[in-house]
Amino acid sequence: MHSAVESNERKNVYDGVAQLDADGTAWVQLDEWFETLNGDFRYQLTAVGGAAPNLHVAEEVYENRFQIAGGEGGMKVCWQVTGTRKDPWAAAYPFEVEEEKPQEERGRYMHPSLYGAPEEQNVMGARIPQAPPTLPSVEPPQAPPTLPSVEPSQPPTPSSTQSSYVLNEIDDLKEEIAALHEELRRRQYSSAV
Question: Which CB contacts under 8 angstroms, 24+ apart, belong to 183-187?
């Protein structure tokens, strides 16, 4: 698991401190999964305690390690390596820096209170299915209808038209819930990585 780093690319940042050997070099060992998850590396080195104008990355990342050289023996060096995600999930879902907001979500917020907006402007309000329209009222007949006799052990069943309408509505709601769940999962995963 990785925490999020704000960037317009899917970046992972790793850092640490190395102590240079007597010859002014040090190997930095990274985690065994480092190159599986990351590519397109960027390096930063900072000498601690004195100037080191020749300090440099002598060997780039290979087999999950890289080498620092050019400093004084025993010098402490702070290092940072930034990688761009290259794992299968990142490849399958390319990062879009700017996305068009769907029309029904415009003017709404993920967290309305942070923008001084009422809770009704929550973006989830645009995603919740609206109640079906109400049917016009019908005047009841003058005489009560005669109901067919039903055996006590058999509950009355709705008409096939009513049943199919209800089942279709349930299927539609299931699809909307699944889509919302997937969108939420995608956003949570995207912000967590």
Answer: 186/93
pTM metric for this prediction? 0.55
C-alpha 115, offset from chain centre: 22
- The amino acid present at 109, given as its one-letter code, is Y
Per-residue pLDDT of the chain (193 residues; tens, 9 = 90+): 888 788 888 999 999 999 999 999 999 999 999 999 999 999 999 999 999 999 999 999 999 999 999 999 999 999 999 999 998 988 898 878 888 888 888 888 889 899 999 988 888 876 666 566 666 666 766 766 666 666 665 555 556 666 666 777 787 788 888 777 777 777 765 555 5
Phi, psi for 154 (deg, rounded to 5): -110, 115
* Cα-only R_g, the chain: 31
Parse the chain into domains and list their residue ranges: 11-92, 160-193
Taking alpha carbons only, the member of 184, 186, 191 closest to residue 6 is: 191
Token pair listed for 74? 């025993």
Q: Strands, E, within 25-134: which ranges?
A: 26-29, 38-48, 56-59, 65-69, 76-85
Neighbours of 141 (CB within 10 A): 7
- Count of helix runs (H) and strand runs (E) in the chain: 4, 6
Q: Which residues pair with 81 in a beta bridge?
A: 14, 43
* Options 2.60.40, 2.40.70, 3.30.1380, 1.20.1260; CATH of 11-92: 2.60.40
